[in-house]
Design brief:
The chain is α/β, with parallel strands linked by helices. It has 24 helices and 18 strands. It has a seven-stranded mixed β-sheet with strand order 7-6-8-9-11-10-16, sandwiched between helices. Strands 12-13-15-14-17-18 form a six-stranded mixed β-sheet, sandwiched between helices. It has a five-stranded parallel β-sheet with strand order 1-2-3-5-4, sandwiched between helices.
């Protein structure tokens, strides 16, 4: 029987010898490659933390000791060691999540996959343990070196060092990469550590050195590293900035040596105060295709051939990100003021193409969205036009900077929000469903949602031409569908996609929901109900022609890939009332809930956002049996009672 099959919880690791732990590590890597190759997911990060995670669970007693992962995409091994070895539906509806999830296990604590928050969590948990007299409980925070580029980690460290009589262990998982290679001064310092001869010797001989515990080991720690004062000051080359920090530092330690990691973690556990353990790991460890992948060492993969690492997808469609990346390069060739900014996601957001063409006009700030946006305001003031490309879920982190640094100062900054709306298998913290509701409250913001590739190119150019305030372009994850041509374009830029003889229903379809709007119109036509389908293109502020057309219709239906609370439908309804238009509005979107991981289609179906569900409700509204009720038109009267609310 394989050793992994006998591990049903962390304490099952206690009986294993060092040789068996080596075998277990190999089995875990084989398991991860086989299962993630089938389903897709975060492969590289988990291959890199196998021994590190085993050591954590050998030394600490989860769940009594709290283990927090930053970010959660490195938690697959943790799941395996805590009794979750059915990966058959990884990241699928009803299967285990790709990130820690409390509903799965008491061993999971922080579900959010947004980076750099773990030390704040660890600070709070350890304070609570101390305040309640639970001095025998420990808190372990596993922080990727990329997460150290986020300002929250340094705010937390400042507070941890101020009150340092707590059982708190911070493990810096240093693989030189967050997603792509880690950016910034901290990364450069860690690079120096990895390339020094002293580290190189340690990397290959750590097992032997840690076996010599006693005066030799103590001398080693004194000689190689001091406390965190030296650690942090070397990070920044600023002795004064972190001079007040007082956190014990251990390392660097070979993160692929279970015995070495156990020794360091045992020391940290027994220290009785906060300790930083600096572990050197290799992303993609043990899987040659991942190790040879220069871009991101298989950080996240789709379905692949486990033997070769090659994608088995046969899709030839073009993705939204690719269209954006290519078009930005094209625009930048004509406009020298364009500069790209991202937060540790050059390739995922498509900015790597601009970097290849104009290496001096792309800035990767690391995992620091707030800094990215405030810096963009400064760039705009200096005469540039920044294009800030981030995932839609991450713009939430920089809302204050969008509001107070960009909008208040009327800075010409364009935000490009990738993965907007329902993203599917990555779960609650990755769905980009809040941006429409959050950003539309920013004064004078202009917000666009292209329905296809042609409109993305068109609206991106329009956004970059605006220099007196923020503009936003948002698009979903995945492939771009075929172009949807308009019947006509209104003078204010609104595209009319479908018109009917009877002006019963005006369907305002936002962005990628344009096709859904057309499908609903087809079903309504079968019931004798006329539907006009429009794509506003620029959805905030609400175009005047939307108000004009709403005045002429009996009912307005808004369709948006975001939460309906405070969404675009709400904005349309408010603007109609301000204009004295009493046409009823049914605002269709996603519920204000944290949506679990599942496919996009499954999530939309659960939310009632299918053509059949929507058309059925509209028929009922037109017939007057469901609120909001469509109003009769003076020249047409009520819709004929011959309409049947049958299967539409």
């Amino acid at each position: 029987m394989a050793i992994l099959e006998t591990v049903h919880g962390p304490r099952d690791l206690d009986r294993l010898s060092q040789e068996e732990l080596v075998q277990l590590s190999a089995e875990i890597r084989e398991f991860l490659v086989r299962e993630v190759a089938r389903s897709g997911g975060h492969l590289g990060p988990n291959l890199g933390v196998v021994e590190l995670t085993i050591a954590i669970h050998r030394v600490f007693d989860s769940p009594r000791d709290s283990i927090v992962f930053d970010t959660g995409h490195q938690s697959y091994v943790h799941k395996l060691l805590t009794g979750r070895q059915d990966f058959s539906k990884l990241r699928e509806k009803g299967g285990i999540a790709g990130y820690p999830q409390r509903s799965e296990s008491v061993h999971d604590i922080v579900e959010s996959s947004h980076a750099s928050s773990s030390l704040s969590w660890a600070d709070g948990i350890s304070r609570a343990f101390s305040m309640t007299g639970q001095d025998d409980r420990h808190v372990v925070a596993v922080v990727g070196d990329g997460a150290l580029t986020g300002g929250m980690t340094w705010e937390a460290l400042n507070n941890i060092s101020h009150d340092n009589a707590r059982n708190l262990v911070i493990i810096v998982n240093d693989n030189g990469r967050s997603y792509a290679p880690t950016i910034g001064g901290m990364a450069r310092y860690l690079d120096k550590v990895r390339t020094r001869k002293s580290y190189r010797n340690l990397h290959f001989t750590s097992s032997r050195m840690f076996a010599r515990m006693g005066p030799y080991a103590r001398a080693f720690y004194r000689g190689v590293r001091g406390g965190v004062h030296g650690f942090l000051s070397r990070f920044t080359n600023n002795q004064d900035l972190y001079a007040n920090l007082d956190i014990k530092y251990l390392g660097p330690v070979n993160g692929h040596d279970v015995k070495a990691m156990e020794s360091a973690l045992t020391q940290a556990k027994n220290y009785g105060a906060p300790v930083i353990v600096h572990a050197i790991t290799q992303k993609g460890k043990g899987y040659e295709p991942a190790q040879k992948d220069v871009d991101d060492q298989f950080h996240a993969v789709g379905q692949i051939d486990p033997a070769t690492g090659k994608s088995i997808s046969t899709s030839t469609t073009v993705g939204w990100t690719d269209v954006f990346g290519d078009e930005l390069v094209s625009l930048a060739e004509k406009n020298e003021s364009i500069v790209g900014i991202t937060a540790a996601m050059l390739r995922p957001t498509g900015l790597h193409k601009l970097l290849e063409r104009f290496p001096d006009r792309v800035i990767d700030v690391g995992i620091a969205e707030q800094h990215a946006v405030a810096s963009a305001a400064g760039l705009a003031f200096g005469g540039m036009h920044p294009v800030v490309a981030v995932y839609a879920t991450f713009i939430n982190r920089a809302f204050d900077q969008v509001l107070m640094d960009v909008a208040l100062h009327k800075a010409g900054v364009t935000f490009v929000l990738d993965r907007a709306g329902v993203t599917g298998p990555d779960g609650p913290s990755h769905h980009g469903v809040w941006d429409l509701s959050i950003l539309q409250v920013v004064p004078h913001i202009r917000l666009a949602a292209p329905r296809d590739a042609t409109r993305l190119r068109e609206e991106l150019a329009e956004a970059i031409s605006i220099d007196d305030g923020p503009t936003v372009i948002r698009f979903p994850k995945g492939s771009v569908a075929h172009d949807i041509e308009a019947v006509r374009r209104r003078p204010d830029g609104v595209d009319v996609l479908r018109e009917a003889a009877h002006k019963d229903v005006l369907i305002v379809a936002i962005g990628a929901f344009a096709q859904l709007g057309l499908d609903v119109a087809d079903r309504l036509a079968q019931q004798g109900i006329g539907a006009t389908v429009v794509d506003p293109r620029w959805i905030v502020p609400v175009p005047e022609s939307i108000i004009d057309m709403a005045r002429d219709h009996r009912l307005v239906i808004s369709l948006e890939d975001g939460v309906r609370v405070g969404g675009i439908g709400t904005r349309i309804r408010q603007d109609l009332r301000s204009a004295g238009v009493d046409t009823a509005v049914d605002e269709l979107g996603l519920p204000d809930e944290f949506l679990d991981h599942a496919s996009r289609n499954e999530i939309l179906a659960d939310a009632g956002l299918t053509a059949q569900d929507i058309a059925r409700d509209v028929v009922a509204q037109v017939l007057g049996s469901k609120i909001p009720v469509a109003r009769p038109l003076p020249d047409e009267g009520a819709v004929s009672e011959t309409f049947q609310n049958k299967n539409v």
